[in-house]
Design a protein that fits this description.
Layout (H helix, E strand, L loop, with lengths): L4 E2 L3 H5 L2 H9 L2 E5 L3 E4 L2 H8 L5 E2 L28 H9 L5 H25 L1 E3 H6 L1 H11 L6 H13 L7 H27 L5 H7 L4 H32 L1 H9 L4 H11 L5 E6 L3 E3 L2 E3 L4 E5 H4 L34 H16 L2 E6 L19 E6 L2
Parallel strand pairs: 1-2, 3-9
Antiparallel strand pairs: 2-3, 4-6, 5-11, 6-9, 7-8, 10-11
Helix pairs in contact: 5-7, 5-15, 7-8, 7-11, 8-9, 8-11, 9-11, 11-13, 11-15
This protein binds protoporphyrin IX containing FE.
Protoporphyrin IX containing FE (HEM) binds next to helix 11 and helix 15.
Family: Belongs to the cytochrome P450 family.
GO molecular function: heme binding; iron ion binding; monooxygenase activity; oxidoreductase activity, acting on paired donors, with incorporation or reduction of molecular oxygen
Protein name: Cytochrome P450 hydroxylase
Length: about 400
């Protein structure tokens, strides 16, 4: 019996792609941590994601409600539900994410992106995460919620606390901090819901209240958007800069022809996806690629591995701007397909347009990056860049 492969060693987190290649050779197998079942080939990942009856999302919420946390509405958010409950909720929230909402937000998103790009380029030496990649989605989500601008920083703080819950064995003091964050979030969202109920407008919460959702359902949905809408978009922007620092010719091409930016974003989403995997629980014994996975197992569908699968993406380990976009799984697949995909693509496009129109080039100020220690979200925790202003 060979040793189980481990998704969580520092080397793998720094560069998971060699391990993914190894996993695709034994496409369904148990891995560390915890003996989860890793699924790594494109077709198998699609099978898992499109079949909520056998691969359930319900139950995963448990990791967001550890014994030291009496209440956490995130555990009941949309992404943790199965049909028919998921189908009902999703049909009620989808229209808040339509094209009209995005067109309404676009000028404000562009203005935020331009302000952040001006300030970053003026400073030249920046931590790209702290000064651009993070404030952009945090301020956009703030706008989307219809919160006061000053709340953007709190949103980021809440997002950090929420994503730390499943992985952590926190000290009593840290537990208290996280409980405090959740209470603060709940007070903030309750006040927002009450305000919009009294004076409906055309923003997200008013739109949600027009559907037949209970107060608790609106609350859980808003809680779920905080981690979903911030961290992944931060890493999309950051991963784009990391990939471009390794592909200077592509940077030149995109700077000369900004119409290539949407292609750049799609290829970064395939080559270095911010969402590396999705978790599911098997509801019965399942056979996949000839391997039997027992009922009640945790399955990790490795999107990052599936998008390097040669049978789907020829020259998969190469970053190719000319690649025609082919059924990306970066925003998931099937019933849980990301509701914010259009918003995330818009934020990334406007952010990169604002930045590239102001710089003549940039360089990474550090060889070794400190990558996120998560099997779900991948990106650098800090990204020191030198930005050369355009002459
Ligand atoms: C680059 C940025 C983003 C990436 C890579 C991303 C990725 C994903 C993925 C992979 C899923 C499916 C999870 C699963 O199947 O278990 C998902 C679901 C979701 N995402 Fe995103 N996301 C991004 C940005 C956003 C934004 C900006 C928002 C909203 C403000 C958002 C809201 C959601 C919601 C509500 C769901 C749950 C949908 C459902 O369960 O029906 N996402 N996202």
């Amino acid at each position: 019996m060979s040793q189980p492969l481990n998704l969580m060693t520092p080397e793998v987190r720094a560069n998971p792609y060699p391990l993914y290649a190894e996993l695709r050779r034994r496409p369904v197998c148990q891995v560390e941590p915890g003996g989860m079942w890793a699924v790594s080939r494109y077709d198998d990942v699609v099978t898992v994601l499109k079949d909520p009856r056998r691969f359930s999302s319900e139950g995963l919420g448990r990791s967001f409600r550890p014994p030291w946390l009496e209440r956490n509405p995130t555990a009941d958010s949309l992404v943790m539900k199965d049909p028919p409950e998921h189908t009902r909720l999703r049909s009620l929230v989808t229209r808040a994410f339509n094209g009209a909402t995005l067109s309404r937000l676009e000028p404000s998103i562009r203005a935020i992106a331009e302000e952040l790009a001006d300030s970053a380029v003026r400073r030249q030496e920046v931590d790209f995460i702290a000064e651009f990649a993070l404030p952009l989605p945090a301020r956009v989500l703030n706008l989307f919620f219809g919160l006061e601008p000053a709340m953007a920083l709190r949103l980021k703080h809440w997002a950090d606390d929420l994503v730390s819950i499943p992985a952590s064995q926190p000290s009593p003091q840290r537990q208290e901090e996280i409980r405090h964050s959740l209470q603060e979030m709940e007070r903030c969202f309750n006040a927002l819901i009450e305000q919009r109920r009294a004076r409906p407008g055309d923003e997200l919460v008013s739109e949600l209240l027009r559907g037949e959702l209970t107060h608790e359902e609106v609350l859980s949905f808003l809680f779920g958007l905080v981690p979903a809408g911030v961290e992944t978009t931060v890493y999309l922007l950051a991963n784009t800069m990391v990939v471009l620092s390794e592909h200077p010719r592509e940077l030149e091409r995109v700077r000369e022809n900004p119409a290539l930016i949407p292609r750049l974003i799609e290829e970064v989403l395939r080559f270095e996806p911010p969402g590396q995997s999705s978790l599911r629980l098997t509801t019965e014994d399942v056979e996949l690629s000839g391997v039997r996975i027992p009922r009640g197992s945790i399955v990790v569908a490795l999107v990052g591995a599936a998008m390097r699968d040669e049978s789907r993406f020829p020259q998969a380990d190469q970053f190719l701007l000319e690649r025609e976009s082919q059924s990306s799984l970066a925003f998931g697949h099937g019933p849980h397909y990301c509701l914010g995909a259009m918003l995330a693509r818009l934020e990334a496009r406007l952010g990169l347009e604002a930045l590239f129109s102001r710089i003549g080039g940039f360089s990474l100020q550090r060889k070794e990056l400190d990558w996120s220690q998560s099997i779900i979200a991948r990106g650098p925790r800090a990204l020191p860049l030198h930005l050369e202003p355009m002459r």
